[in-house]
Amino acid sequence: MGCSSCSTGKDGQPKGCKNNGTCGTDGCNKLTVFDWLSNMSLPNGQKPFDCVEVRFKNSRKEFFRNSENLSLSIGDVVATQAASGHDVGIVSLTGELVRVQMKKKKEDYNNPQLPVVYRKATQKDIDKWQKCRDREEEIKKRAREIAILLNLEMKISDVEFQGDGSKATFYYTAEDRVDFRQLIKDMAKAFRIRIEMRQIGYRQEAQRLGGIGSCGRELCCSTWLTDFRSVSTSAARYQQLSLNPQKLAGQCGKLKCCLNYELDVYLDALKDFPSQDTRLFTEKGVAFCQKIDIFKGSLWFSYKSDPANWHELTKNQVAEIKEKNKKKESVTSLEEYTLTNVERDEKVFENVVGQDSLTRFDAPKRSRNKKRSKKRRKSNYKKRPSNNA
User: Fold this and answer.
1) Within a domain: residue 236?
2) Taking the CB of residue 214, how many other CB atoms lie within 10 A of it?
3) Per-residue pLDDT tens over the stretch 359-382
């Protein structure tokens, strides 16, 4: 866990603050923002910024105006304005950084219709809010059963109760448009609450639910990534990755967002590289590019008549051969470039740890020949005549 006040219990959930991932210290929250201005005081005469950022279930964050001038700090549980009634959330950011976050998310902090913070949550508000959160898993399971009975092609992935327990928001994913009017009627009759259905994409679903990626870390979308840029298979081609959908797809079923992280570096490096469709004309035959290595600055070519044998060339050598082809100068073969101009560095590995063998702790195996010779000695000793006879 990222929070120092939490420790993992037997069931895998954090214990200590008993908030199960929504710690009051804001250390293990999703999309946490570090308040690097917390130790700095405001200039004389400047009033503190009157807006705060409040975090609700999973990664949902909204901005509220502190119209009552409450002394709020990160981790305080507050009752906020909602469309009807009130909601309960945890303050995730205060001060001037809220202004920066609102500019980043294109929120107008001068908007008079910005929702407000009512008060710090009382113990009664917290108990009611916790009771509603305990019902979410049961209601989600029951809602999925109702959707299956109605033969609706949709997946209800998450349920979020409002802080006062008067409304529940059901997040679902679907390929096509779904007519869920009968579903809302049945759920309102079964749960006795107001229902709101909200369709989300598959990446937003992974962001809300979270998980562990193939790299062994938490999903980027649920920890720090906020903008979902489109990812195409060309990003994998530029980085020389195998076009295997099982390896390139994330938990959301779409292409991994991390394919875009190093794409700009590869595109800059490929500007100086010859195209992969380059053909080299020699007296021995036409050569085609089979593979490129951006980090080494190398390209591998093979003749059309002998595609199994590859010849390694540097990008400067390829440019030289192309220039000769344009001038219609003769090039004998690729071998004269690979043998004379390419110097291969042999890697020498040194034993810096001092380990001689991986099997040095194993018990030595006794050979079968020793066992046989020992049995023969015993049999020969028994056959010898005694001196008393």
Assistant:
1) yes
2) 11
3) 666 766 666 666 666 667 766 665
